Amino acid sequence: MNQLASRIREGDARALARAATGVENRDPQALETLRELAPFNGRARILGITGPPGAGKSTLVDALAAALRKQGKTVAIIAVDPTSRLTGGAILGDRIRMQQHHSDPGIFIRSMATRGSTGGLARATADLVRLMDAAGKDYVVIETVGVGQDEVEIAGLAQITVVVLVPGMGDDVQAIKAGILEIADVFVINKSDHPGADRLELELQHLHKPILRTIATEGTGLPDLLAAVTLAVLPPARFDRRQDRRCHLDHLGIAVPALNAAVAFYQTLGLAVTHRETVATEKVHVAMLPAGDSRIELLEPAAPDSPIAKFLEKRGPGLHHVALKVPDLPSAVERLRAAGARLLNEPRQGAGGHLYVFVHPASTGGVLLELIQETET
Predict the structure, then answer these.
(1) 248-373 maps to which CATH number?
(2) Domain 41-242 belongs to what topology?
(3) Residue-wise DSSP of 199-257
(4) Which of 71, 85, 338, 355 matches a 20 to 30 Å C-alpha distance to 349?
């Protein structure tokens, strides 16, 4: 484990902040730290707080964090804010509103900019959640931007999604039903002392989800919300989405003696080359042709002693390997080693900059298998 990862596991808030910045900026060192911390994932409870602007989400998150701290729990708050048109960074309204926690080492607050992403989250939000989880936080609370009905990505990331609404929405509830209302595990009617709370609750009842009333500024209804998010049995399907251990086909590697001739054939099928490069470590020229959700990777030897040259000499042109994308390559490698699989290399960078490892055909049923670390785009 590198020094930054060790400091994060020791509870160093500055190290955590540094890694979070690196993850947002897709810094290779920070992403490597995230991979080293992967074995410590899966312990935190992940809460998503979403809803339209003005619903009081930040105030509710602030109060919820304070209540969790009274229970002795540690909390990370990831507040996804709109991107500043001037700086490209986050408009840090949420962090300003939560200043009461600045001296509490048990609460870590991170504002992050959407940077053009839609759906209520930023591109690196999922990685930040994993980082906070691995840092040992008991709860990770994600507050989405609050831009309306398209904020549905949170449901694929959080274990429990809380949709915050306010009285006076009227027919607006029907207008957004196809969006954020359908992802809720719990509804919260905040500012429930305002006129229209009864009507709003009536509009929500047909969705058959728990409906709670709160006045976040006064703490009213907070014990019920706290019980709902801390005592709820996590739905297995939702948990499986967050801890998805499934593999996905990334590409088929085909060994060819002449790259240009092979490319010309696949172009007749309507496929187009989107990337070419030479991978020095493997002594191979590569051309990648997307085919649906996966790719065809054509491989031409770049030197007489390359693995592809030896493959062609022994077997001739044809399928060289199958590549699967995995969500956590270090963990997959550990499991394979424990099972006695024969690995041909340590994880390293390959074509396209991805991290990969090869598994010997003797361990896979006769085909060379490449495992690739899935990365966020």
Answers:
(1) 3.10.180.10
(2) Rossmann fold (3.40.50)
(3) HHHHHHGGG-S-EEE-BTTTTBTHHHHHHHHHSPPPPHHHHHHHT----EEEEEEEE-S
(4) 338
